[in-house]
Amino acid sequence: MFKFLYTEIKKEHFRIIPIFGDLIDCRISDHSEAFKEFIIGLIFSTMPIWLGTLVNFVIIDAENHGFLSSLKNTISYGELFIYCNATLAPIFYNAIKDEKGMPNFPGQFWHIFLVILISIICSAFFSLQRTNVNLDTEIIFPSSIGLYLFSLILFYLSMVYKNNRLTGALDVRKTKTNEFVGDFNRRHQNA
């Protein structure tokens, strides 16, 4: 009994962590399906970046600078800011979409807040960079990489939560209902 109580207390402490807390309720199958969807989406959505880098490396930069230099040349003009916004759009949709009979999107407030904040920052940086405002590339380029990586994390989490919400929440609800009915029947059989 104490082990169960201790486990429930730890779960409740973890649950209060914004964005990540609701992972405690997600199943391995939610993660595995989300990972497959994430990898396929990542490969196809970033094809202009990695294919452009490969072409640039093979045709132009192979002898001079190397593959990483070609990659930096491919994304150094703010392209990742656009990718960041494109990655965040489905998160916003998933977070606000009301599914009939389903629980709310886990961490809904924080997902929406972060999506809006990051989208505004990325749009501003991309616009400033495209209007030839003199921005410090030592800050802007790493910022674009960091924001894109963070939006990929948010995107993965949103897919895990979406999977759990659509299938896992039903399983939990069904299990709890079955437990309640079983307990109810046992109590009333003895009466």
How would you sum up this structure in a few lines?
With 191 residues, the chain is mainly alpha-helical.
Kindly describe this structure.
There is one protein chain. By secondary structure, this protein is an all-alpha fold. 79% of the residues lie in helices and 0% in strands. It has one domain. The protein has 7 helices and no strands.
**Tally of helical runs:** 7
Overall pLDDT confidence? 81
Largest sheet: none
Which series of helices and strands comes N to C? HHHHHHH
Number of domains: 1
Q: What does the overall shape look like?
A: elongated
Query: What is the CA-CA span between the terminal residues?
Result: 26 Å
- Percent helix among the residues? over 70%
Q: Please mark out the parts with pLDDT under 50 across 5 or more consecutive residues, or reply none.
A: none
Strand content: under 5%
Helix- and strand-based class?
Answer: mainly alpha
Gyration radius from CA atoms, angstroms = 23 Å
Q: How many runs of DSSP E, i.e. beta strands?
A: 0
Keywords:
191 residues; mainly alpha; 79% helix
Topology:
Elements: H1 2-15, H2 28-45, H3 47-61, H4 67-75, H5 79-96, H6 108-130, H7 137-190
